[in-house]
Write a structure and sequence with these properties.
Elements lengths: L1 H12 L8 H8 L2 E2 L2 H17 L9 H5 L17 H20 L3 H18 L6 H15 L8 H5 L8 E2 L1 H20 L3 H4 L22 H25 L4 H18 L5 H8 L8 H21 L12 H19 L5 H22 L12 H19 L29 E12 L4 E5 L14 H29 L15 E11 L5 E2 L32 H12 L5 E8 L4 E5 L4 E10 L1 E8 L4 E2 L6 E5 L3 E3 L5 E7 L4 E9 H19 L6 H28 L6 H4 L1
Antiparallel strand pairs: 1-2, 3-4, 3-5, 5-6, 7-15, 8-14, 9-13, 9-15, 10-11, 10-12, 10-14
Helix pairs in contact: 3-5, 3-13, 5-6, 5-21, 6-7, 7-9, 9-11, 9-17, 11-12, 12-13, 15-16
Length: about 725
């Protein structure tokens, strides 16, 4: 096997693997290479980014995302959001940069313009950051250093010196390396026990894309073998298969199918399409020219068939060497007619020399002569040093969480640069934001969606800290505005409600969620004032509660209980909860639920009914109950209750109930489902294209309004601020 690897390496690079030196590596990375495949990838990536701007970058909804000056954002580094009109101008510049990449017009400037603004936008808010957002930015950075405009570009059209110019092989190498890291590290992340045990992506097999597999596999088998194990093996090995020419066609077929399925399964924007667009990087660099030549030959043969009674005509395009040999033959023919004394052996020597000169001319024209060690310059070495540094950084970052501890929660790091795509599934049932006026001891509960665009902040300690600071700033502004109104009016008869009465406030956030099918549990300490905690990117999050992994063995039992509860009727459901000793869950059961029962699975609790109006616990004997493992009690809907966990160990319990709302809406839901199935909504490509079109129109309307504001001072309305 080792011999085969050495032989393959030498055939591909021209160097012996054993004798490989740094200078040889520099020569290899600077080997002149056909730019055709790189040019095609540049075009496709540019088109994807043109579409990405109004979509996942938020261009169509920029007024919602950036229009409210009081909105809470979560920047990775200290960056400020510009006023909405200027954000719109930046979006327009970024869009034209992406268009310039696709067209290959002023390529370096366009790529720089696009990449700088792109990174500014994604660094402004971590809550919108995904692995693929990070990937798109990395590709932009890498393209700046390449000569991807040497093929099918306006730059090459207007500057003939760039047309067909061969590029250093590192232009391909670094992009292929980036996608190798994307797949391979994603596979390594899936080697986690959570993924391989089949708990990370449950119930995904119910999607219609898996219907063909349901002929010979059960739903559970699809979830386990296809969703988890196949994805693990695929990510870990697909790049190796695509690099090997004999397995490349099959591997690319699986890769295309994988990304097409993902485009239907998840809302992940342009990511599947960018991965499809960059697959040609693993093909021979001249594949576009080879394909075009093949199509030309086929069309010529077809044209010959039609024009010559179906007689195929072979079209041969002479090469430089063939033309030179033809000239040599013509020269010999003329000499033979003039002087028949030419010796045959002399003719062969002259002809051989002529062919050698032609081959050398061809090699020089195509710039295929390899540089020798003496031709290596400092610039080439610096480029390779930079590439090695970049590669080392990309290998290190996904495992750098022992340094950036402040971004860790139950999982390591931000969901953005670790390539841990879809490794964990989160289910959040409650986010409680409580503001306490410490002088009056009054409490106020805020909507967790106040001033935010999503709830991703709720699972990260760093973003929770930022959100608390944002709430504090907005509440202080509200209080100052109220005080100014009182001063201007001279009395305190304003009907506007006073939210808080002092600057001495505390903010507490309680998040209840489940990861990978475990019990719902609180994620952060609900008794820590987030305005007084200290956060550092290099220190552990002090207010993070540990995940109750000691109760993970309950997951299989929970699945069995859930299946049993579902057999009661079509509207029965169950919720599993766990809590820490000394803490309590205060819960309100909506009247829409009925037949609610609380059952203790492990540990012991104290159940009490709470009157929120008087803030006192009921003292009625039947409403204050001590429950241990295996005991149950009826829960009254429409009122608050508390479940105190007592003892030395965590307690876990479950609510079983019937959802009356689902029962009342069941007929309408079934009717809508049938209508969707009849309308063939499984593959709504036309609807998606129409949505892309309307978002593009909205995007440019925002930019047009921004230009009117900047030039003429016409006010730019913001739906986000109005909302």
């Amino acid at each position: 096997m080792w011999k085969a690897i050495r032989t393959s390496f030498q055939r591909k690079t021209g160097y012996n693997l054993v004798d490989l030196t740094f200078d040889n590596f520099v020569q290899y990375l600077h080997t002149p290479t056909d730019p055709a495949s790189l040019g095609v990838v540049r075009i496709l990536y540019g088109i994807m980014m043109v579409l990405d701007g109004p979509e996942e970058r938020g261009g169509a909804e920029m007024d919602y995302r950036w229009g409210d000056p009081r909105g809470c954002h979560f920047p990775l580094v200290p960056l400020k959001v510009l006023p909405l009109p200027y954000m719109a101008i930046l979006y327009a510049i970024m869009w034209f940069g992406a268009l310039g990449i696709a067209l290959g017009y002023k390529f370096k400037r366009s790529a720089f313009m696009f990449t700088v603004i792109y990174w500014y936008i994604i660094l402004l808010d971590k809550s919108f950051w995904n692995n693929h957002s990070y990937l798109f930015g990395l590709i932009g950075i890498l393209l700046i250093g390449t000569e991807a405009n040497s093929f099918l570009s306006l730059d090459a059209h207007y500057d003939k010196s760039k047309s067909g110019k061969l590029v250093p092989y590192w232009n391909y190498f670094i992009l292929k390396f980036q996608f190798f890291i994307l797949y391979f590290v994603a596979g390594l992340k899936k080697s986690d026990k959570e993924w391989l045990s089949g708990y990370a992506m449950t119930n995904l097999s119910t999607h219609w894309v898996f219907n063909p597999f349901k002929i010979f596999l059960s739903v559970e088998q699809i979830d386990y073998f296809l969703v988890h194990w196949f994805a693990f093996v695929f990510d870990l090995t697909v790049c190796f298969w695509m690099m090997y020419e004999y397995t490349r066609p099959v591997a690319m077929g699986f890769c295309a199918l994988f990304h097409l399925m993902n485009s239907r399964l998840f809302r992940i924007g342009m990511f599947p399409w960018v991965c499809l667009a960059t697959m040609p990087l693993f093909c021979p660099p001249d594949w576009p020219k080879t394909t075009a030549k093949f199509i030309k030959i086929v069309l010529s043969k077809y044209k010959g068939c039609c024009m010559n009674n179906f007689t195929l005509i072979k079209v041969n395009v002479p090469t430089i060497a063939e033309k030179s040999v033809s000239k040599c033959d013509d020269t010999f023919s003329e000499n033979e007619s003039d002087d028949t004394t030419v010796v045959h052996s002399d003719k062969e020597k002259v002809k051989k020399k002529c062919i050698e000169e032609a081959d050398e001319l061809k090699a020089k024209k195509e710039n295929k002569l390899k540089p020798n060690g003496q031709n290596i310059c400092k610039k080439q070495k610096l480029v390779v040093y930079a590439l090695i540094t970049y590669m080392g950084l990309q290998v290190f970052l996904p495992y750098s969480h022992f340094i950036t501890k402040g971004y860790n929660n139950w999982t390591n790091g931000l969901y953005g640069y670790s390539w841990d795509m879809m490794v964990n599934t989160w289910d959040t049932i409650l986010i409680l934001v409580k503001v306490v006026d410490n002088e009056s001891e009054s409490e106020m509960f805020l909507d967790p969606e106040a001033w935010t665009q999503n709830d991703r902040w709720s699972k990260h300690g760093d973003m929770i800290h930022q959100y608390a600071q944002c709430i504090h700033r907005n509440l202080m502004e509200d209080m100052d505005e109220k005080m100014n109104k009182i001063k201007m009016s001279g009395n305190d008869d304003d009907d506007t409600p006073r939210i808080i009465g002092s600057r001495n406030i505390s903010i507490y956030i309680d998040v209840w969620c489940s990861m990978n099918g475990r019990f719902q549990q609180r994620m952060f300490d609900p008794n820590r004032d987030l305005l007084k905690v200290k956060w550092s990117p290099f220190s552990d999050v002090e207010w993070l509660m540990p995940m109750l992994t000691e109760l993970s063995y309950w997951r299989k039992t929970m699945v069995d209980i859930q299946k049993h509860v579902y057999t009661w009727n079509n509207y029965s459901d169950v919720l599993f909860v766990a809590d820490f000793p000394g803490l309590y869950l205060e819960n309100y059961i909506t009247p829409d639920l009925s037949n609610i029962t609380l059952t203790i699975l492990e540990g012991q609790v104290f159940y009490k009914i709470v009157d929120r109006k008087t803030k006192r616990k009921s003292l009625v004997k039947n409403e204050s109950i001590h429950l241990v493992k295996g005991e149950s009690t009826f829960v009254q809907p429409g009122i608050f209750h508390r479940i105190h966990t007592i003892g030395d160990s965590p307690a876990c319990y479950m609510y079983t109930y019937m959802n009356a709302t689902l029962k009342n809406l069941d007929e309408n839901r079934d009717r809508l489902r049938i209508m969707k199935e009849e309308d063939g909504q499984k593959l709504p490509l036309l609807e998606e294209l129409w949505s892309n079109f309307t978002n593009m129109i909205t995007f440019w309307q925002h930019i047009g309004n921004a230009i009117l504001y900047v030039i003429y001072g016409v006010p730019m309305m913001s739906r986000g601020e109005m909302h």
